[in-house]
Amino acid sequence: MGDIHSVILIAVIAGVTMLIRFLPFLIFNGKRKVPEYVMFLGDKLPYAIIGMLIVYCLRNVDFVTASDWIPSAVSVAVVVFLHIWKRNTLLSIIGGTLLYMFLVQAVFV
C-alpha cells in the first residue's frame, strides 16, 4: 500500500503544480487584458519574497561573537556584488552559498 500511496501523492502534487503553472495562461490567453492589480503584484511581489527570504536566512545569526556573523555578512555582500555585477540569480545564489559553506566549515571552525 505504501508504493501506491506514494505514486498517488506524487501524481496529485504534479497535477496541482501543473495547474498552478498553466492557470494564468488559460485565464489570460492573450484575448483578455491582464488586470492592473495582477501586473502590480507581478512587479512588486518578487522583491517582497526576496526580503522575506533574507529575513528568514538571517534570523538565527548571533552577533555576540564574530565567528557567528562574519560568514553571513561576507556571503550576503558577495551575493549582492555578484548579482549587481553579472545580473545572474543562479550565480549569485550558488556563489554565496558555496562561500558561506566554505567559511563556516573551513575558516570559522
Topology:
Layout: H1 2-27, H2 36-58, H3 66-86, H4 89-107
Which keywords apply here?
mainly alpha, extended, 109 residues
Describe it for me?
By secondary structure, the chain is an all-alpha fold. It has two domains: about 1-35; about 35-109, no CATH class. It is built from four helices and no strands. The chain is extended. The N and C termini lie far apart (about 45 Å).
**Count of domain modules:** 2
Q: Given the structure, what is the number of helices? A: 4
Radius of gyration over C-alpha positions, nearest whole angstrom? 20 Å
Distance between the termini: 46 Å
Average pLDDT figure: 91
Helix content: over 70%
Per DSSP E runs of 2 or more residues, the count of β-strands stands at: 0
- Overall, the morphology is extended
Strand content: under 5%
Q: Order of helices and strands, N to C?
A: HHHH
Going by helix content, strand content and strand pairing, the class is mainly alpha
Major sheet, described briefly?
none
Spans of at least 5 consecutive residues with low confidence:
none
Task: Quickly describe the structure.
The chain is an all-alpha fold and 109 residues long.
